[in-house]
Amino acid sequence: MDMSAKRHLVLVLVLSCLWGALSMPDPKHREDLMKTEASMQTGGRMVLSEKEQQLSSRLLQMKSEEVMRVDFPPSMHFFRARDLIKESPIFSLLQKVPKGAALHLHDFSMTSVEWLVKNSIRFFFSSQIPKPLPQCSPWVLLEKLRALTVNVTALDDSIMKNLTIFTDLDPDVAYPSQDVLWNRFEEAFRAVSGLVTYAPVFRDYYYQGLQELYADNVMYLELRAMLSEVYELDGSTHDMIWTLKTYQEVTRQFTADHPEFFGARVIYTIHRGVNSTVMAQVVQKAMQLKKTFPDLVAGFDLVGREDPGRPLWYFRNELSLPSDKGLQLPFFFHAGETNLEGSEVDQNLLDALLFNTTRIGHGFALLRHPVAKELSRKNGVALEICPISNQVTKLVDDLRNHPGAVLMAEDHPLVISSDDPAMFGSSGLSYDFYEAFVGFGGLRSNLGTLKALAINSIRYSSLSTQQQDKALAMWQKRWNKFIIENT
Amino acid sequence: MDMSAKRHLVLVLVLSCLWGALSMPDPKHREDLMKTEASMQTGGRMVLSEKEQQLSSRLLQMKSEEVMRVDFPPSMHFFRARDLIKESPIFSLLQKVPKGAALHLHDFSMTSVEWLVKNSIRFFFSSQIPKPLPQCSPWVLLEKLRALTVNVTALDDSIMKNLTIFTDLDPDVAYPSQDVLWNRFEEAFRAVSGLVTYAPVFRDYYYQGLQELYADNVMYLELRAMLSEVYELDGSTHDMIWTLKTYQEVTRQFTADHPEFFGARVIYTIHRGVNSTVMAQVVQKAMQLKKTFPDLVAGFDLVGREDPGRPLWYFRNELSLPSDKGLQLPFFFHAGETNLEGSEVDQNLLDALLFNTTRIGHGFALLRHPVAKELSRKNGVALEICPISNQVTKLVDDLRNHPGAVLMAEDHPLVISSDDPAMFGSSGLSYDFYEAFVGFGGLRSNLGTLKALAINSIRYSSLSTQQQDKALAMWQKRWNKFIIENT
Ligand SMILES: [Zn+2]
Ligand SMILES: [Zn+2]
């Protein structure tokens, strides 16, 4: 992926023959510079077949029309833009694009809430009141709930409202600050996890999540998972080994049912709110899991809002345990999901890189850190960019101002992902691909960009090179089919 | 100003001794990287005296408190943030900072509207109805106006409302789109120009404008001026030579009255809405003016909204006239004040550079143009960054996401200016300095940043090196005084 040296050379050559010109700039040189710039973007050097070029032109045509709209979706809040995006022809096409891998997705917001409500409602039917659960509100009889609501749809709707942060209200009124937003977000996360950690729901929820990715033409997943305890109605619980094994079994079942799906891996995550003692235990546990399930467990990460949380450097001793013990534990740190420039937490980006993170979750603040940016580029540490998530959590309004637009203009190592799609009223990767392709890329990104983003998602995955080659071959077949079917 | 080579060297050295480490990152190396990054920002290599360091620490303390506020002004629309900024201790200090030069300011929005209304009201008192003016609405007797309003203050307020786009309403409701905003903006501009182009007002307006800059501790101005016809009540008009000479005389008067003020120059501007024939005439005129008033006229620029306007390349023949004729006409092009990525207008940045522009007005889109960015950096073509203007014209909401934050992190050649302060309900440079220092810089920028911004504004001015040295010596005296008075 390192073509940066070559790129610089080209740039210097073009510039040196041009600069110092006195009369009208030579249109030929101008053209060359424009081409150089276009070639520097993500996918800018991708060679396209004739058919691909045809499709690329069609995409550009669609985009020109999209840009002319008074309500330009990438400039609007996703909650208001969603239906506009859904209806746009370019989105229909983006859904069909074989997008490769989803590398930044969390366990309890991967599956649509509609499905969850319809399929977890059954666990309200129990012959006796189940044992109370420590982190949940007390059990309520469904008939009591029913008495309070007019009809089942209304009940479903009211339950659903608690399980996502999506709202039809003005999002800036509903969530006036990052604090309010994150509180509601973590609340909804706890509510979902109360439903999903019920064993029978857990299996189905994950299977359904894979189904939704598959339907969105995603072929591989690296799932950030808390590996929470899963319970049965009799009060018994399963430990994280059970949870991991369930992920493994369901993934096997799913790939058996869908041979075009490549598979899934788990990135074990812990909330950054824990103390050092707990962190030390968790890191030990993570090393053990990685050793026991080397093909299933990709590595380790911390989750939860960065701003009020402990910075990575606070846990420097605990995070050094793997290298101290000579054990392998790849990191996939969330970092730079902040706009508190110059704060302690803003140091997470550099620290993630110093701890040899494999990828960076978000990296929203990267542009303000030229040293970290250089390290990420030189060492091929890709950013997992989640446009809708950053907008919903109020880091940026108009997505054309998202740093991803700049990073894509420079072909910085990156992939596009969706973080918590169910929570945002989104699903799969296509909505985020829309924001990146139409919003970040403007009129400049083309089919080569989409192709590069898909290839990136496999090349920057945790898979071994051999596995990547296999996945790429599989992807290429689907890509070729996609091209034929759409030209 | 070209320390970029040296900077890269330092970065490479630090990285090479660090990378590949296996156990906990060496805290010393981490510290070094953080220092390297901090040193890369605007003013990051400025050596500060002991007293300056004291003041810098005080500034940092003030900023930490500012960042803790629930309503963080740089994240808010300026119309709502203005009073918060005005009351903040850091703003009081920023007002006192000798800020050097204002390099991007327009003729008819440099002076506060309060002053304009109070001092142009007199031209309603005329013994007979004056001749109608082509671009203005018909004359109205003040008594008729009075009959419609309750009291003089209400009349003043209602006039004022037409002369600025500032509003107490929700700015997103008042101006739901860039189109609406720009229409109101150009309307207000025409209204002001009707008042200001009345000869007696014209002189006083400009003198008062200089006064306001001086009060804000600005010492030099490069004013973008349309050099419009100026009228008398008898219907007679003055041509642009008169206008230019008036600027010259008033500037001389002002510097005589205020020996600490260095002076002013004019950048002759034309609306980009004209056709090629008119443009050719105007460029000829500009060359002639530059020749006749070499010390007064700095150069030439096009104004008006870029998006719907003709791109620079459309005028390539006309803009080549100076070099074709071997005459000197420095350009100071507005460019990249857009978020229409990949459009024809988005090419203005590169074209401005190809036409050897001396500086770039705004350059908001520069980060999305790596080739243009490289050219601007290598050739020391500074951006005139106007944070509040870009926010008001709806290019960006939260100013922490303004590209200036990234460019300042990299010490890209730039200056801070205020574009149309009176139009935005702002004044001088201090409000924009606040946004840049607190919003762009976060907790990382320091007194060295402010010092560098002031020095930049002189070094990137159109003054000769000799004049710059003189201006810098003048500035240094004021700076020393400022340091002593504030430690
Ligand atoms: Zn995440
Ligand atoms: Zn301007």
UniProtKB/TrEMBL annotation, chains A, B:
Annotated EC: 3.5.4.4
Localization, UniProt: Secreted
UniProt main location, coarse: secreted
Single Gene Ontology MF annotation: adenosine deaminase activity
GO biological process: adenosine catabolic process; inosine biosynthetic process
Enzyme class, first EC level, given as a word: hydrolase
Cellular compartments per GO CC: extracellular space
Record's keyword annotation contains NAD: no
Cofactor dependence: Zn(2+)
Residue ranges of every copy of the Adenosine deaminase domain listed in the record: 179-470
InterPro entries on file: A_deaminase_dom (IPR001365), A_deaminase_N (IPR013659), ADGF (IPR006331), Ado/ade_deaminase (IPR006330), Metal_Hydrolase (IPR032466)
Gene3D superfamilies (alphabetical): Metal-dependent hydrolases (3.20.20.140)
Catalytic activity annotation: adenosine + H2O + H(+) = inosine + NH4(+)
Domain Adenosine/AMP deaminase N-terminal: start-end pairs: 28-94
SUPFAM superfamilies: Metallo-dependent hydrolases (SSF51556)
Keyword terms, alphabetized: Hydrolase, Metal-binding, Secreted, Signal
Family: Belongs to the metallo-dependent hydrolases superfamily. Adenosine and AMP deaminases family. ADGF subfamily.
Annotated protein name in UniProt: adenosine deaminase
Taxonomic source organism: Mugilogobius chulae
